[in-house]
Q: What sequence folds into this?
């Protein structure tokens, strides 16, 4: 079998890997749950390549992410749920339906993105999904069909990183008015949660401390949301900045014949200050 620019070749490869007769033993052992962490990891690696502006890695990581879609589709096909063609048809239908001002008839295109149109389309999609679930009731399903009726926040998947999940949950709640209109009470809430965390550190268990830290972080996300900042991206920027400055420390120590292990905290702190100055100077030149 040879490489191809046709996506169907990738589908064929995955089908061969999952073939009980002559397939790959490792691939045959996998299921949705065991592959899911790889799917999430590949999505992060795509984001990392974008952040680094690396087109070579981006091309490769997009391929790895596409493989995850094909992998899950093949496992679903084996269960009789759906196949890769169904996935492609579903997303193309969704994109066409959600952009009537681009793909619709002359009247729809001239109307542009009418007010309320997005909500109407989403409601139609939700109704169709409910109908498909009911139709699916006679087939093998990953969950029992006796699940309770969905609640308002159930539309937000729990698979996102915690900061992103908190942001999405808060945005969803804000749509029905559960929100503050200015930052003052949010900042007061952060102070309150910080005080409760300190109290938990002094008198509480590790579980109580963890709970209070979660409350504090949730409040910080709320403040970021008010200022229209993405807390996940903000933290990633800070982590990248920390890594760059720590690398500066390590290179400086090696240049002076030392190591991270042999240096004192005061020596590393002095180099940290140097790293901050160097990064600020570099930013000023850009």
A:
């Amino acid at each position: 079998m040879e490489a191809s620019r046709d996506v169907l070749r990738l589908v064929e490869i995955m089908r061969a890997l999952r073939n009980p007769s002559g397939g790959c033993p490792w691939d045959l052992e996998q299921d949705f749950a065991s592959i899911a962490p790889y799917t999430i990891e590949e999505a992060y690696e795509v984001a990392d390549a974008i952040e680094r502006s690396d087109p070579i890695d981006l091309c490769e990581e997009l391929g790895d992410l596409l493989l995850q879609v094909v992998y899950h589709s093949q496992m679903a096909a084996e269960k009789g749920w759906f196949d890769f063609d169904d996935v492609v048809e579903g997303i193309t239908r969704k994109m066409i339906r959600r952009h009537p001002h681009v793909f619709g008839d002359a009247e729809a295109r001239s109307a542009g993105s009418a007010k309320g149109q997005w909500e109407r389309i989403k409601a139609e999609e939700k109704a169709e999904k409910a109908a498909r679930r009911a139709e699916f009731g006679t087939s093998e399903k990953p969950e029992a069909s006796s699940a309770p009726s969905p609640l308002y926040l159930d539309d937000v998947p729990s698979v996102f990183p915690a900061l992103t999940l908190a942001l999405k949950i808060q945005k969803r709640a804000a749509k029905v008015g559960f929100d503050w209109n200015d930052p003052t009470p949010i900042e007061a809430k952060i102070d309150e949660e910080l005080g409760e965390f300190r109290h938990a550190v002094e008198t509480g268990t590790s579980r109580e401390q963890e709970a209070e830290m979660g409350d504090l972080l949730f409040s910080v996300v709320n403040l970021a949301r008010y200022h229209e900042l993405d807390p996940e991206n903000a933290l990633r920027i800070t982590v990248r900045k920390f890594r760059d400055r720590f690398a500066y420390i390590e290179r400086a120590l090696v240049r002076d014949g030392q190591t991270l292990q042999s240096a004192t905290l005061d020596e590393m702190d002095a180099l940290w200050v140097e790293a901050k100055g160097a990064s600020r100077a570099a930013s000023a030149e850009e």
